[in-house]
Amino acid sequence: MKKRRRIKKKNNVVLFPNLERRLVEKALYSLKNKQYTEAIRFFEEAKAIDPLNEELLFGLVVAYFEAGYFIEAKEAAKELLNSGIGDYFQIVDIYIMILVQLHEHDEIVKTIQSLLEEKEIPDEKVAHFTSLLQFSKKVIEESTEIEKSPQNVEKHQNKDVFSVDGDPKKQMLLIAELANQNIRPYIREITDFLQNHHAHPFLKTMLLNELKEQEYHKEMVVNKFGLTKTVNPVKVHDVRSQPMLKKMILTIREQIENEDPILFENMKTILERHFFLLYPFELEQYQLNVWIAAYHSICLEYIGFEDAQINIAARYEVSEKELLEACAFIQELEEISYPII
Length: 341
Description:
Layout: E1 8-10, E2 13-15, H1 19-32, H2 36-49, H3 54-67, H4 70-83, H5 88-101, H6 105-117, H7 123-148, H8 168-177, H9 187-195, H10 201-213, E3 220-224, E4 227-231, H11 243-257, H12 261-278, H13 288-302, H14 308-316, H15 320-334
Antiparallel strand pairs: 1-2, 3-4
């Protein structure tokens, strides 16, 4: 006679067999489909059951990072490093990228110097970490120099801050550091970068956002996705407050949230990510209901509804041709990897 599997209990809560595994699978699926808020929820639920699961702990760090929760990502990465679980240098790598986003270069220097002194870095990674160390030291030195001698800013006028062999990760590091500096000495390089059709749209948004933060009021030409626009950084809407984005989120909140709150969150997350890539442009060519229908259709496909477009077209009273074309453009945006990935 077969023995029945015992149902576990934790803090008087019944835990069904393989619940943790199912949660991790759902989290990984959400992460793969860039549904980061949903992935975090599943990872955190799984962690409460098994706090030492390597796969879910690393996945949680990645999900936090991709969702922009850098403080939470830092704490989760530190916890993982201290536990000794997983690929140590893979975790160190993402930990340093998190520190860059938080502008914690002193901690980057401390971390890498410790690894170098203890000779723990594999030979094939020494050059990579040495480069990051030199970069952070340089940022600290330049920040100190500018703080002590504001008149020295002019010395940086001719510095090409983007001469990093076109590596988006390195460019992201450099652009992130402009938050700690006067951006005006780099306007010539920024102008060229914003007009470069091959430059990463994510990085262009980072630059525009920093120009706005530092109240740069001269007009800039931006090329993205085959479109050209002249903008005054001070006068453009905040990247998270674009009118069309707010209107679309309000519409799907009214139409979808009560019906399917998870679908609503997934649509909202993808919309925010895409509008970040598009900024300062918005979704054009089709009417609002076509775009909402297209995002609804794409999100349904992500969860396994392969033939959703016909029903969605009828629901939103849009043509199948326009819906398919809008979906194709959304898929193009989905294929654009962020520099950290």
